[in-house]
């Protein structure tokens, strides 16, 4: 438990111990909780997870969705009704060449993707049924390739902020407001263009050999079929894409002195771009003639899988970071959106767009709960005890580390700050306060999004991601936001969304609407507890709002 003093420095120091001393040890042995992600028999070994699904003996076509994530590289084969018949996962390997830097090695990412696809294909009795594949991935991170299509440098992780000086030069050159007007993005060092400028400034010899830059999803697709292409959802996370025209911005690229030819042609998600090459087929087990289609940004693929494709639909994606998203049918011109720090982009559903914010310390905040458990306790026991703590956590408050704009520095050493009567608080009380703080942060992030619809009250919100399996968190969120939470029974939403795009590319679905008519997952509804709502409304207005406005620095 946390104790000692209520001072900010001491509390943040205590939380830092969770992240850097206790949590890593727990993560080493805590993967078993995640092994039930798809709800099937699980075989593990040397960091590899193969999910043994019930065999599907029909001869109907299948498509594969691959999800290149920050934590894991996952994939699954789905029927045209959205049933997973084979799946696999491996950890994403990252490297830290110096403090504050994180990178991936292209060869390792490709080898991991091959291993996942090969395992999936090996679980299918008749792999010739696999008609298509598409890839979802984290955004912003990408691969520089030479004239032969070979990588020339490591991949800068999406959250790596080494390119801050290049961003400063870019905003001085073009202007932050102009960049936002063209791209829909609030300029930030995480976006791809600043990473390209870093390569040019810091690795000039490497950059001089580069002839193409591809997002991670596009890199895997390129290795499968030999055709470079990107989709609009990933392109709109580069800070070089004209969101209204859906094309690369000549104005931005000319000012940045980046040749347009370095960037791949941009097309709609679900566009067929080629077929699996023979060498890639031999490595992966994919059949000859398997269509490769463009996938997209992982959060948007997840949104597609659960039907978040219409104007006003709201999504809460609970992963390593928490993504708060609302669909729109056009880019929003309201200056308040950018002033509040929210970004816009293209959806994987053709003709749709989105506005989003985030709580990027979400995953680290939940990890801290594991650190509260003793050797004889489990996280499930802790959450059961926290459920018996009344709303308000006996006055203990948790503020997740996030800026008022909704974007945070992922390199912060702590997930958030505890205040109030922390001395003597039990682990259950601390756990309740962390969950409540995350729910309050989500409400503060969603409020400006709901205002885009002219609403003071939230409509129904759909929740996906690993955090959606935390029942107590969802009950608290429903009460804090005073609305129903819709939790689809989809464990790997990004992979399913990518598989749906693969099916569109392979001609198995006409379009997104056709896909959604065929794939309708079961849904659990979490209704707000009326006995909790008033208490949380008071705490939010009287405590969390003032704390959030003041902010903190760990």
Layout of strands and helices, then pairs:
Blueprint lengths: L7 H27 L6 E5 L2 E5 L9 E7 L3 E7 L5 E8 L11 E2 L1 H17 L7 E8 L4 E4 L9 E2 L7 H11 L1 H8 L8 H11 L1 H6 L2 E4 H10 L4 E2 H4 L5 E2 L4 E2 L1 H7 L9 E2 L4 E4 L2 H7 L6 E7 H8 L8 E5 L3 E7 L6 H5 L3 E4 L6 E7 L2 H10 L7 H9 L9 E4 L15 E4 L7 H25 L9 E4 L6 H11 L3 E4 L4 H13 L6 H7 L4 E4 L3 H21 L4
Helix pairs in contact: 1-13, 3-5, 11-17, 13-15, 14-15, 15-16, 15-19, 16-19
Key features of this structure:
8-stranded mixed β-sheet; 25 strands; 2 domains; alpha+beta; Nucleotidyltransferase, domain 5; 7-stranded mixed β-sheet
Could you characterize what this model shows?
- By secondary structure, the protein is of the alpha+beta class.
- It has 2 domains: 1-34 and 307-472 and 530-554, ATPase, nucleotide binding domain (Nucleotidyltransferase, domain 5); 35-306 and 490-521, ATPase, nucleotide binding domain (Nucleotidyltransferase, domain 5), CATH 3.30.420.
- The chain contains 19 helices and 25 strands.
- Strands 1-2-5-4-3-7-16-15 form an 8-stranded mixed sheet. The chain has a 7-stranded mixed sheet with strand order 19-20-18-17-23-24-25, with helices on both faces.
- The longest helix is centred in the N-terminal third of the chain and has 27 residues, at 8-34.
- It is globular.
């Amino acid at each position: 438990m946390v104790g000692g003093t209520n001072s900010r420095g001491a509390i943040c120091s205590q939380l830092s111990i969770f992240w850097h001393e206790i949590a890593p040890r727990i993560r080493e042995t805590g993967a078993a909780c995640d092994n039930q992600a798809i709800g099937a028999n699980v075989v593990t070994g040397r960091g590899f997870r193969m999910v043994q699904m019930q065999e599907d003996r029909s001869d109907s076509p299948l498509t594969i969705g691959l999800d290149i994530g920050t934590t894991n590289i996952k994939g699954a084969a789905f029927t045209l009704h959205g049933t997973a018949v084979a799946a696999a996962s491996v950890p994403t390997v990252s490297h830290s060449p110096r403090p504050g830097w994180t990178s991936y090695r292209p060869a390792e990412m490709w080898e991991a993707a091959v291993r996942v696809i090969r395992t999936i294909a090996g679980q299918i009795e008749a792999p010739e049924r696999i008609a298509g594949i598409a890839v979802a991935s984290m955004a912003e991170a990408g691969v520089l390739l030479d004239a032969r299509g070979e990588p020339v440098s490591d991949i800068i992780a999406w959250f790596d902020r080494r390119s801050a000086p290049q961003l400063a030069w870019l905003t001085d050159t073009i202007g932050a407001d102009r960049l936002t007007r063209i791209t829909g993005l609030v300029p930030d060092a995480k976006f791809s263009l600043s990473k390209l400028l870093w390569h040019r400034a810091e690795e000039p010899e490497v950059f001089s050999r580069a002839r193409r830059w591809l997002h991670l999803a596009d890199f895997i697709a390129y290795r499968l079929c030999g055709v470079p292409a990107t989709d609009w959802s990933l392109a709109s996370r580069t800070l070089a894409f004209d969101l209204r025209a859906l094309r690369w911005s000549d104005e931005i690229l000319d000012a940045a002195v980046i040749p347009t030819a370095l960037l791949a042609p941009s097309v709609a998600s679900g566009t067929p771009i080629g077929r699996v090459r023979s060498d890639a087929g031999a490595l992966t087990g994919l059949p000859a003639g398997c269509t490769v289609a463009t996938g997209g940004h992982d959060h948007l693929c997840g949104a597609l899988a659960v039907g978040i494709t219409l104007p006003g639909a709201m999504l809460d994606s609970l992963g390593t970071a928490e993504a708060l998203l609302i669909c729109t049918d056009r880019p929003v011109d309201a200056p308040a959106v950018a002033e509040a720090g929210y970004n816009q982009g293209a959806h994987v559903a053709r003709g749709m767009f989105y506005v989003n914010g985030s709580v990027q310390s979400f995953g680290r905040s939940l990890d801290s709960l594991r650190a509260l458990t003793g050797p004889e306790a489990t996280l499930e026991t802790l959450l059961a005890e926290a459920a018996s703590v009344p709303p308000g956590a006996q006055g203990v408050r948790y503020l997740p580390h996030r800026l008022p704009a909704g974007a945070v520095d992922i390199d912060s050493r702590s997930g958030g700050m505890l205040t109030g009567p922390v001395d003597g608080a039990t682990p259950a009380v601390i756990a309740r306060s962390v969950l409540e703080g995350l729910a309050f942060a989500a409400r503060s992030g969603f409020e400006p999004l709901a205002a885009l619809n002219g609403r003071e009250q939230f409509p129904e919100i759909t929740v996906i991601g690993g955090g959606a399996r935390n029942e107590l968190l969802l009950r608290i969120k429903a009460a804090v936001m005073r609305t129903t939470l819709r939790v689809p029974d989809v464990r790997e939403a990004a992979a399913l969304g990518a598989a749906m795009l693969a099916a569109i590319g392979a001609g198995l679905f006409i379009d997104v609407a056709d896909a959604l008519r065929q794939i309708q997952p079961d849904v659990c509804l979490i209704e707000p507890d009326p006995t909790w709502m008033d208490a949380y409304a008071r705490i939010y207005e009287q405590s969390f709002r003032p704390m959030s406005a003041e902010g903190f620095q760990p």
